Amino acid sequence: MVRSELVDSLSRDNPSLSLQEVESIVSLFFEEIVAKLSAEGRVELRGFGAFSTRAREARIGRNPASGQPVAVCATRLPYFKPGKEIRQRLNV
Fold first, then answer.
1. Maximum Cα–Cα distance across the chain
2. Of 28, 82, 29, 81, nearest to 52 (Cα)?
3. In Å, how far from its chain's centre is CA 55?
4. What is the pTM of this model?
5. Where are the beta strands (DSSP E) in the chain?
6. Which of 2, 28, 51, 70 sits between 20 and 30 A of 22, alpha carbons compared?
C-alpha cells in the first residue's frame, strides 16, 4: 500500500471527512513520527509496533569499481520493531 491508497482507504471509511482533511491528517501523522525520530526519540504505537533509530559507526568501505578504500561517515538509520499482534497475524 502506498500513501495515496492509504488516504483513499481512510477517506472511504470516513465519508464525513474531505479528501484534503484526510491527506492533512496522514501528513501530520507521518511528520510527527519523523520529527520524534529526528530528535532521537522513539515512537510506539501499541498493537502495531515501535519506530526508533539505530546508529551506524563510521567505517572504511571499498569502492566496488576500483577496490579503493573509502571513508563511510557515521549515520543513524530508522528501525521498526513490529508489535506482538502483527507478528501473530503474520505467522498464522
1. 60
2. 81
3. 16
4. 0.77
5. 43-45, 49-56, 59-62, 69-72, 75-82
6. 51
- Neighbouring CB atoms inside 10 A of 64's CB total 8
Locate 17 and state its grid cell.
471527512
What are φ and ψ of residue 9, in 5° steps? -65, -45
Q: Shortest CA distance to 33 belongs to which of 19, 48, 55?
A: 48
Q: How far apart are CA 44 and CA 88, in angstroms?
A: 18
What are the backbone dihedrals phi and psi of residue 47, each rounded to the nearest 5 degrees, phi first? Answer: 85, -10
The Cα 82–Cα 45 span in angstroms is 10
C-alpha cell at 6: 492509504
Answer whether residue 40 shows pLDDT above 90. no
Letter for the amino acid at 31? E
b/e 31-49 (16+ beta carbons within 10 angstroms → b): eeeeeebeeeeeeeeeeeb
pLDDT at 92: 82
